[in-house]
């Protein structure tokens, strides 16, 4: 694992930061308020090869590791453009299709995903089965050459701007354990019987979250990804990219907030000197910066282990996600505090990122589920659930 960024890495960071800067937080918030996708930005990311960085070259991707996509995501968030679709479409779904899709599925989707011409949403969470995927109740039943899906999903990001939805559904139950046997399907968002309704949240992101209702939705059998009943393994494989990319939202927003805070405290004077002169102002920012860099180190380690195919990637990705979530919320909180009343004034832009930074402790995987993982797998403690 390199600790010094390579020339290519530095170049990628600078190029993405420049592109993100052309759009910036104002553009992102305008789109968020209008509930419109950031189509222009997405297209430019595709044109520059950033969205397919992690995809095989034969499908128009860059053939790079997860770290390159992580850099893209962190730089965007640091410029005030935190992008959920980089997690669900560019990291999770693209990776699932590249590894487990049929030749036809890969040929149909991967070049478009790499070019920014398509986005695919990812639907696993259900009202009664969030952290516990074994308990999913959305069912897909095979009838002839079709599957028929019934059930509900909630909090699914970007449904209205998705070209397809990767749906995780139960196709059976393991008789020994009683746990669900899961399968993955590519579903047309406009399929008859599929309705979606908006779920208002305080998280500022243009994609928004949606509840999905499946009422006898028919899917051709060739839209199954991989093997029927073996979907859980595929989902678990996708968790490490999800955790590493999830961590980049936290650290990117942390940098966004910290940059604002540093320039504010150097400028603002209330007792005749810049408030940065007071340690009570400077130290929380310094502490937040240390946490941020520690999280960054663990993210780099997780990405290196993942790209090397190491079995230790899971532990590192979980720890990175946890550390980044904590660093993110502490940086944004410290930035708000040193802004005084301006910390909650809308014009300073910190309230725009607060709830997303807070959410990264809950999803895509919650801090508690990470602690469960480390308790059980790292420390060898009994499974608690
Ligand atoms: C903005 C946003 C975007 C999202 N985007 C998507 C998306 O695109 N696709 C998708 O499928 N989902 C999405 N989600 C859902 C998100 O992944 C879940 O909210 C998250 O995984 C937590 O699940 P839950 O809300 O059902 O919480 P629950 O599972 O109900 O958990 C509630 C709390 O209890 C804790 N808890 C539960 N079980 C245990 C246990 N065994 N031990 C310790 N603590 C436990 C959890 O950590 C959590 O703090 C999104 C959610 C939001 C808010």
Automatic annotation (TrEMBL):
**Which SUPFAM superfamilies does the protein's record reference?**
Acyl-CoA dehydrogenase C-terminal domain-like, Acyl-CoA dehydrogenase NM domain-like
The reply on keyword Metal-binding is: no
Domain annotation Acyl-CoA oxidase/dehydrogenase middle: ranges: 121-200
Keywords noted in UniProt: FAD, Flavoprotein, Oxidoreductase
GO molecular-function term, one example from the UniProt record = acyl-CoA dehydrogenase activity
- Enzyme Commission code: 1.-.-.-
Describe the location of the Acyl-CoA dehydrogenase/oxidase C-terminal domain by residue ranges: 229-375
Which Pfam family is one of those matched by this entry? Acyl-CoA_dh_1
Domain spans labelled Acyl-CoA dehydrogenase/oxidase N-terminal: 8-117
Which EC class, in a word?
oxidoreductase
Catalytic activity reads: a 2,3-saturated acyl-CoA + A = a 2,3-dehydroacyl-CoA + AH2
Q: Name one GO biological process term.
A: fatty acid beta-oxidation using acyl-CoA dehydrogenase
Q: Which GO terms describe its cellular component?
A: cytoplasm
The answer to whether the entry has keyword Flavoprotein is yes
Q: What family is this protein classified in?
A: Belongs to the acyl-CoA dehydrogenase family.
Instruction: State the name under which the record lists this protein.
Output: Acyl-CoA dehydrogenase family protein
